[in-house]
Prior knowledge:
The chain folds into 3 domains: 1-94, no CATH class; 98-183, no CATH class; 186-294, no CATH class. With 300 residues, it is mainly alpha-helical. It has helices at residues 2-23, 42-56, 58-69, 79-93, 98-106, 108-114, 129-133, 138-151, 167-177, 187-209, 214-219, 228-251, 259-268, 277-299, and strands spanning 123-128, 157-162.
Amino acid sequence: MNAWKAKLAGVVAEVRSTLAELMGEDDDSPPCLPSGLPDAVKPIVVESVHRLTDYQGAGYAQLYLHRLKRFVGRRNVDDALFGDIAGLMAARMSYEDPIRMAQLKLAEVEIRQNRPHDTFADDVRKLRLDEMVSSLPEAVADPVLYGLEWAGWLHMPVTRRFSTESRWSIRRLKIEASLRRWRLHSVRYAKERVWVERWLHMIDRSLTKQPEAVSAIVQSATMVQDYGHAYRQGLADWHLIIDSLAKPTFDGALKLPDLAGAVAEARAAALPDPRQAALKRTIAQIRARASAGGVDAAAG
């Protein structure tokens, strides 16, 4: 029941954050930290709040705190684990989209003014065409993505250069960074929101069903990072491991007493291969061993 209340509170916070962004009412006042937050974790959370406020606004940082609140006082959540959850969730909620890349590069403008004789290199990013379009609001992005898929250009690589070298390049960065207001209505954000909530749900289930595996579930978030093909590969691998090992274990459909070891074994087999051949083979072997162990136990 408490888990559902925490999830409902997160949904309400997300709605408030979105409305505040759209109406321009997202003020700069820092959100209040949850009561009962361990002292050892507070520096990580405070830094994360600053990061997410810069990324999307105070309302978005408040959403982060609502999501984090569900683990305050939870059994089997020590300070180290809480800190990992706090840091990894902040990293995922500030995912690297073209808007963020423009935001970060814009921060260089003031530095250049104070250090006029220094040399600053352009940031060159290898993105995908669908990644660029997915940063736009769904109403705009969906028909464009449909057209790109029809033409076979959806995954076309795109090289983007982020520069503060000229007035035009700075103006371009400002235009791209201004899309922050619409980020919470983008195709990309909708997917990121679902992923974060599913990751948190898997942590909840592990705490209930197999607490000794919870650290492995928390650390699985490190599989999903960066941008472009690396991001897509990590995301696909994460879903495959969760769907094939963690979820069926929590559901009782797969007998894996050492889920943490199984996740580590699977992660070691995750290679930069779109077909996921080695990972699928390793997962099949893990599941076969688990099934054989269940049969032997029943026979004994």
